Design the sequence.
């Protein structure tokens, strides 16, 4: 971290640049916009942009590191606020759908081919943080009486994340030809119905009928 980034005003400027760059990547993809394009989109000089990042690869990494941190914080908050484990999963699912819905179709392919360190950051985010969230949610639902108790929470969470990893592979997305947000919704529904006991399934039916 540079001394400039340690200054609160410069930290705020960096955050604005990262969030603006994220919007550009969501709209145009990661590879297409040059640093000149991004500077223009952000309304700053390229010199200002390079004051905060080394090069485009560094910018891409910082953007996706910021996305991962934001998602971790948001899902943690949703998990704590949900009135039960099922509602927590549904809230997290809806949040992730909103994040994925506006993602450019080429984004994951671009990351995998041209920015592997950023793709690895996303992978580690899924394995370490999302998997941990699933384990805690399963254990909570078992205590609340909504989830089955005849399975290993850690094993199921690892199997689910393996499916997530497959689902987010660019080749798989191309084969399915469906938006990632739609696939994510179907996978979470599959997961939730698979771990729910009779009480949990009844809760889901009643919830669906009331909406």
Sequence:
């Amino acid at each position: 971290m540079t001394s400039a980034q340690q200054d609160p005003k410069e930290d705020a400027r960096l955050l604005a640049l990262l969030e603006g760059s994220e919007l550009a990547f969501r709209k145009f993809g990661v590879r297409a916009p040059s640093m000149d394009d991004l500077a223009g989109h952000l309304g700053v000089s390229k010199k200002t942009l390079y004051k905060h990042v080394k090069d485009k690869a560094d910018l891409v990494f910082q953007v996706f590191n910021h996305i991962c941190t934001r998602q971790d914080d948001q899902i943690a908050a949703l998990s704590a606020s949900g009135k039960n484990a099922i509602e927590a999963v549904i809230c997290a699912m809806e949040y992730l759908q909103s994040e994925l819905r506006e993602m450019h179709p080429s984004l994951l392919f671009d990351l995998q081919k041209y920015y592997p360190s950023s793709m690895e950051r996303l992978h580690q985010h899924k394995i370490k943080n999302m998997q941990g969230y699933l384990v805690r949610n399963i254990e909570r639902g078992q205590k609340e009486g909504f989830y089955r108790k005849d399975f290993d929470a850690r094993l199921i969470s690892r199997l689910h994340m393996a499916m997530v990893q497959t689902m987010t592979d660019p080749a798989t997305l191309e084969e399915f030809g469906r938006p990632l947000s739609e696939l994510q919704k179907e996978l979470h529904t599959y997961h939730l119905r698979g771990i729910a006991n009779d009480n949990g399934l009844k809760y889901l039916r009643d919830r669906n009928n009331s909406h």
Q: What stands out?
A: Residues 1-5 have pLDDT under 50 and may be disordered. Residues 88 and 118 are 28 Å apart (CA to CA). The two ends are 48 Å apart (CA to CA). DSSP finds twelve helices and no strands in the chain.
